[in-house]
């Protein structure tokens, strides 16, 4: 049902539906992901088309309480994030999840927010498939990153202050193309944490582009364009577009996609075209994307030898 893997759970769909038996009821993964829905957002501080997704999965095994308490343990005791910076969101009337956060974790009630279907109901990826209510862990970068509006101050504000770090999905339903939902054979867990966001938080920088995952790529764009990142908003935007799209196009081509007029090929073509368009804004000329791709290969080739 999908052109590209848009989430860590994609290859596990037959396990969630009961169509195939999972080799293990508990799984975890580092998954290359590509979200074509976000192409036109790339250039801001938060959206990426290609990213590395970390996840843990329960196929009819553990459920809400374990997923929530283990996630909290991981972020506070292993990533060592300050609990005061962390918020949780839950789906409107998910009292079971609320109970886990307030009683099992001990999260203060004023740092638990209830959000609707758009934010806290995940899936299905594509026209049909597994889906369910979810609960997210958000990181507060501090009021200095806020938009200053009177409504700012909780993760329901859509500005750069709060970043959704980890999404815990309580996969309970199968949604059909018409929108009707059936229960899955068993309740499952699907979680997703973007490595780039985790890196930004851990490295104390405002976005993925300042992390060691992106720095050499951004630097290459700076060198080729003779522009410095961090001096001018429009130039920064263009540098981010070029760096991100060069990275994502490199990974798509590595995985066998070639530019074309339809399907995956069309997505790659859009990415390349957009990179060229924003490249022109910083006076990049000639076949500059292939040069940036070389930096991506040098920088990420150890982890992804197929590059
Ligand atoms: N499947 C969970 C997520 O992508 O956030």
Explain the overall architecture.
The chain is α+β, with helices and mostly antiparallel strands and 307 residues long. The protein has nine helices and eight strands. Strands 1, 2, 3, 4, 5, 6, 7 and 8 form an eight-stranded mixed β-sheet that branches. The longest helix has 22 residues, at 233-254. Bound molecules: glycine.
pLDDT under 50 segments (min length 5)? none
Radius of gyration: 20 Å
Question: Which ligands are bound?
Answer: glycine
Q: How much of the sequence is in beta strands? A: 15-25%
Based on CA inertia axes, which overall geometry fits? globular
What is the quaternary state of this protein?
A: single chain
- The total count of helices amounts to 9
Which structural class is indicated by helix and strand composition?
alpha+beta
Mean pLDDT: 95
- Let me know the number of strands: 8
- The end-to-end distance, rounded to whole angstroms, is 26 Å
Helix content: 25-40%
Features:
single chain; alpha+beta; binds glycine; 23% strand; globular; eight-stranded mixed β-sheet; 307 residues
In short:
This protein is an alpha+beta fold.
């Amino acid at each position: 049902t999908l052109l590209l893997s848009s989430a860590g759970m994609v290859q596990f769909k037959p396990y969630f539906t009961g169509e195939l038996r999972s080799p293990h009821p508990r799984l975890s993964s580092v998954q290359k992901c590509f979200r074509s829905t976000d192409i036109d957002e790339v250039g801001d501080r938060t959206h990426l088309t290609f990213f590395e997704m970390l996840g843990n999965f329960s196929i009819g095994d553990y459920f809400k309480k374990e997923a929530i308490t283990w996630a909290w343990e991981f972020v506070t005791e292993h990533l060592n994030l300050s609990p005061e910076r962390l918020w949780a969101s839950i789906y409107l009337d998910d009292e079971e999840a609320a109970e886990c956060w307030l009683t099992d974790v001990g999260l203060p009630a004023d740092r638990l927010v209830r959000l609707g279907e758009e934010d806290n109901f995940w899936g299905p990826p594509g026209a049909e498939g597994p889906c369910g209510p979810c609960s997210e862990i958000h990181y507060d970068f501090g009021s200095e990153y806020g938009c200053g509006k009177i409504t700012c101050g909780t993760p329901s504000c859509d500005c750069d202050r709060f970043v959704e770090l980890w999404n815990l999905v309580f996969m309970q339903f199968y949604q059909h193309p018409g929108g009707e939902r059936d229960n899955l054979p068993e309740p499952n867990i699907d979680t997703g944490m973007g490595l780039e966001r985790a890196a930004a938080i851990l490295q104390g920088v405002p976005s993925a582009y300042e992390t060691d995952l992106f720095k050499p790529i951004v630097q290459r764009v700076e060198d080729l364009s003779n522009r410095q990142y961090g001096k001018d908003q429009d130039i920064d935007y263009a540098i981010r577009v070029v760096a991100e799209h060069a990275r994502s196009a490199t990974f798509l081509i590595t995985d066998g996609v070639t530019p074309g007029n339809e399907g995956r090929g069309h997505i790659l073509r859009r990415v390349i075209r957009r990179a060229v368009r924003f490249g022109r804004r910083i006076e990049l000329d000639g076949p500059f994307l292939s040069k940036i791709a070389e930096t991506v290969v040098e920088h990420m080739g150890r982890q992804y030898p197929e590059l």
